[in-house]
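Thread title: Can someone regenerate the structure for this chain?

I was given the following input by a collaborator and told the matching structure tokens would be attached. They weren't. Posting the sequence so someone can regenerate them.
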Amino acid sequence: MLENRGTVTTTLRVDREENDGWLLLRVHGDLDLGTGGRVREAVREAVANGSRRVVVDLADVRFCDSSGVGVLIGARRLLRSCGGELRLVLPRTDLEPGAIPSQVHRVFAALGVHRLFTVVEQTRGERGPQ
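Best answer:
Regenerated them for you:
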């Protein structure tokens, strides 16, 4: 986070990559009210450029609030309206007994939105979403 005139400003970066017929949008940082517009714009730009298969990779997202989830729901709606598909990669959760789920998983669970999305696993260097 960056300090800016007494307020906290969060940072977010979206990297784009074509991968086996899918547009992969890798999101890094915090996905919230202040940064969600960047993800929204990246998805809109992708659709405007003809992409219909989009994966939003949230593996490097440290924080997501309800407005960030709203951006993802809007992206899903946009892609479905043009016959497309949205998939998500969520932060990895350790499979060890007693491991605490990531903050992103907790927000998704609290809002009950897991069922809205196709969640895939992907690691760097794999071909396409699994």
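The helical segments are 36-48, 66-81, 103-111.
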